[in-house]
Amino acid sequence: MAAARLRRTFQYPSESDDEDAVEQGMDEQDQENLISTLSSRDTSTTRLYTLLLSSLPLAPAVFQIPLLLRISTAIPSLLAIASFLASAYALYFLPLPPVKVGIIHLSDLNDSGAKGKGKGKVGGYGFNMPTVPESPRQERQPVPWISDDVADQLAKYIVPVNAGIAVLLALLELVRGRSWSEGVMVGGGYLPGVVLSVVLWARRELRVMDMSELEKLKIGSSAKDT
């Protein structure tokens, strides 16, 4: 999702582009403005989508509260609410590390039609989405009212524990023998697992773009000009 947003920001070179103009590229101020615009737009859009998707686990958690008043559904409902809240926590406070933008030079592109395949130009260069592996280190947002030690432990264990709760509730739903349509409704044992799956997918798609490679490109171009 983030990669698609950045691709749409660039205008892809066509066959009629002037090669001399491509090599000349943008001046330093234009490059700085472009990188700043891309970074701020990607960050703000990612934050907006994250807030909107946070309603996915929070809404069923609210509707699950009345089921706590029944003895037969109190414990499963409590586990389901804990799973929904854990999914919302992971989505908002535990974003995955940014994806770096790989840089290629347009002169390295051959004549086999590779010019138009998802590559934009900045000063005679293009980008490839993404080429650098993500960092294995878990990044997290500052969490209010929670100490750093507790937040670190939550960042480490909340997703696997949540997955275990989702599996447990799904097994309980299988024991009940209800249909799939009932299991994915509020109070159903399959719903926490479905929500968790969507949240894990959304976390991967909502990674922001790391513009460090474009910054290096701008600095390298400035040093060459001087």
Automatic annotation (TrEMBL):
<feature type="transmembrane region" description="Helical">
    <location>
        <begin position="154"/>
        <end position="172"/>
    </location>
</feature>
<feature type="transmembrane region" description="Helical">
    <location>
        <begin position="48"/>
        <end position="69"/>
    </location>
</feature>
<protein>
    <submittedName>
        <fullName>Uncharacterized protein</fullName>
    </submittedName>
</protein>
<feature type="region of interest" description="Disordered">
    <location>
        <begin position="1"/>
        <end position="26"/>
    </location>
</feature>
<feature type="transmembrane region" description="Helical">
    <location>
        <begin position="184"/>
        <end position="202"/>
    </location>
</feature>
<feature type="compositionally biased region" description="Acidic residues">
    <location>
        <begin position="15"/>
        <end position="26"/>
    </location>
</feature>
<keyword id="KW-0812">Transmembrane</keyword>
<feature type="transmembrane region" description="Helical">
    <location>
        <begin position="75"/>
        <end position="94"/>
    </location>
</feature>
<keyword id="KW-1133">Transmembrane helix</keyword>
<keyword id="KW-0472">Membrane</keyword>
